[in-house]
């Protein structure tokens, strides 16, 4: 792979630097920023009282010391939980690193971290994924856009790229985002290639494709097809060196990884 190509690939920290630190915590995102990630990826869900929090699973059981669905808990309930100790030495709570900043992370706090980082000279972007948005009939997107608006991030600046993009496996969710904010970039995530997207076309108005690494490994020519159709290609979740190499050879635009430090080093950027 050429140096120019290596430099162009955006490295996105998936759930933060989630290989090293507990996913979706401030600790994981601070580490990703320190490691030099170009962008941060997060999943968002609505709490019972309407706050957007960064949690991947429907339930909090895997990544905290609590139990229950995010949608059934209020922010105050979630705030009592520890989202970090499950990561201590693979679950043995009295050994391994003692993480700080491991309470539930609101999207608002993550937006503040991005703003703080950028105010101190960095240029960090945020890729926000709406999880199970169909259950909420538009409320996730509505809350998301209100919050982005508050931070002045609901549309790109006139003189540069958007610091924020919205991703989803749901074309409907992206459609809602575009209806409210037509210039905000959207990413259509794909676990497999459905017949209607085989020719490289995406849902109307979507400019960025987000194929899983399995698609890229099994159908590398699909990347070129997407690019010929005029789309950027952001691949997830790319952790192994041979997958990074393949993505770079194929000319993808962004690599979404749990290991931003290693990927940046492999691309010769650290
Ligand atoms: O970046 C897209 C990727 O995060 C989608 O899969 O399950 O990790 O949210 P998941
Ligand atoms: Ca995600």
Please sum up the structure shown:
The protein is α/β, with parallel strands linked by helices.
Please provide a written account of the structure.
- The protein is α/β, with parallel strands linked by helices and 270 residues long.
- It has a single domain (3-55, 105-266), classed as Phosphatidylinositol (PI) phosphodiesterase (TIM Barrel, Alpha-Beta Barrel), CATH 3.20.20.
- Helices cover 32% and strands 16% of the residues.
- Strands 1-2-4-5-6-7-8-9 form an 8-stranded parallel barrel, surrounded by 6 helices.
- α2 packs parallel to α4.
- The longest helix has 13 residues, at 107-119.
- The protein is globular.
- The two termini are 16 Å apart.
- The protein binds SN-glycerol-3-phosphate and calcium ion.
- The site of calcium ion has 3 residues, from β2.
Q: Strand order of the main beta sheet, please?
A: 1-2-4-5-6-7-8-9
Proportion of residues in β-strands: 15-25%
Order of helices and strands: HEHEEHHEHEHEEHHEHEH
- The CATH class name reads Alpha Beta
Give unreliable regions as ranges. Answer: none
Number of helices: 10
Report the average pLDDT across residues. Answer: 93
Question: Would you tell me which CATH topology applies?
Answer: TIM Barrel
Domain GP-PDE: 9-267
InterPro entries: GP_PDE_dom, PLC-like_Pdiesterase_TIM-brl
Protein name: Glycerophosphodiester phosphodiesterase
Pfam families: GDPD (PF03009)
